[in-house]
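User: I'm new to structure prediction. If I give you an amino acid sequence, what do you actually give back? Let's try with this one:
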Amino acid sequence: MVRLILAAFSAVVGLVCAALSLSALSVVGADDVAETAPSQVRDGAYAFVLNPQLVPFQNTEATLQVSGDADLFMGTASGVDVDSYLTGVAHEEVTEVDIPQALQTRFIDGEPAPLNDAAGRDWWTASQTGRQLSHTFDLDAESGEVLVVAPAEPEGNLDGVDVQLKMDAGAVFPVSLIGLAIAILAFGAAGYFLLRWLDARPGRRRRLRREYGRGGSGRGGSSGSGMSDLGARAKDLVGRTAASATRATTRKNRSQRLAQQMRAAAAVGSVVTLGVLAGCAPLPMAQPSSPNLTEFERPALRAGEAGAFLTSYTERLDESLKGDEDRLDKIQAPPLLDRTRAEVLIAEAGKTELSAVNFEQIVAGGPSFGEYPMWFIAFGKPAGSDETVQAMLVTRESAGEDWQVTQSLFVPQENVPTLMADGTGAVEQSGTEFTELGATANETLQQYLETGEISENDQNIEYASDAFTGFRDYVDEMAGNDEAFEDITVTCDPYDEATVPLAEHGLKTETGDVSFGEVRCAIELKVRSGGSIDVGEELEAVMTGDLDGGRLIISTSIPYMLLGSEQTNLIVGSDWFLLEAQTTD
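Assistant: Good question. You get back a string of structure tokens that encode the predicted 3D arrangement of the chain. For your 585 residues, that looks like this:
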């Protein structure tokens, strides 16, 4: 019975090893490469996206190969950027990888192409162009990056582009051959144990014993013993009785030994089965793994990102200030953009030349970039200046758009805070308490700009600049011009046209928090009857109509930086700015 069990066990091992080995060879082949069936990107798709986490293997590498009749672009980037960039754009993305089947995908309908072509984006971590491209990636990497294939030309698409995924299967081919050898040995062992079991069956042993007894100890042999037939039969009966008792005892002992052997064989068999099956595994390097999809996440600021942008920003701003104004809205966003346009008009009217500031040192920090819009705060030290620093709020609404400076002003060096970043480069964002402080600071500043009086508050807010008093001096000067105006009123409101309120772009510092704000004030003057108005060169530069109305309305901008701490909360400004002037009845 033991031999039969061993024969069956060997046969099972042989079948398993043969099945696994042949299956691996059918998928991998002699070159140790497993691959999906070739497929084509669906017509109309602007991009093809593969998340490496969908490949259900580990401990190896995979390669995405693409080819087409026109130049293609292939890049890797954070899924945060790719998701934002392809929102609303027609593209195809992989949903399941099942080697050797073709990649399973889904088509997401949308616009035929984004506003900005893929090759022109700045967030690619690696990229290449050509008609036949491939990218190899580590299946154990946890970078959160995805692969994107797109046309190299802005007006192109992926019609007719072939895609295929290949995976390095390691030493599968030689191990599969070993598995086949083990299968052959197992089948041989199964045949051996089966023959031994057939040869050792109890029925066959009894037949052999009977044949042997008839040939050597039959009646002919007993007649020569001198015993009578009656005595011989009696003696034979006693012998058979003793033999029967002996055989019964022998069968009992054999049954007990067989039970013990079967239990031992079962125990050994289970261990051997695990060992042999492990040795027959067809993919020793690339083991299947359940995809563990996680949310994409970007580091707060990639190394050199802020410095690279602000350096190019300075160069592009300088070009815009010298006449290329159409590019200004590519690098600036309101409220700063409104002020810059007005400054350009005033400079042209006064025949003066504006220039951008060059930085010799930049410190920047922002919260974790897990979703758009993204932003960071930067402090740039102008070249050759030790007294002032340019404080900036830089934002990015989506991956399809560029970084833009949203707020900017010069602040004293002693008012520059120290940003505290963690190991990923992220600076902790301010809490709701500081956001509420920003609303209170804006309200108190509004009241001062309207009335010239500092209102009492329980937030211990101080004004650390002459910019606000300078605005009040201008208002008083205009009100004192009795020859031109009879009455004057000032109405101020917080700037609230940003996608995210300025006060909510706050970061933790070494001693507290920092954020930005802005107040927009309208100065309305009633023109004296019969009088003539001479508004001056600067106001005339920003006039949007003729001076023929009964009232003059001047729109202004007062930006500031808010510093919060346990001791004192400071509102730091640099200057106030004219935005627009117009007359009305």
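You can read the tokens as a compact description of the fold. Here is one thing that stands out. The chain is about 35% helix and 30% strand.
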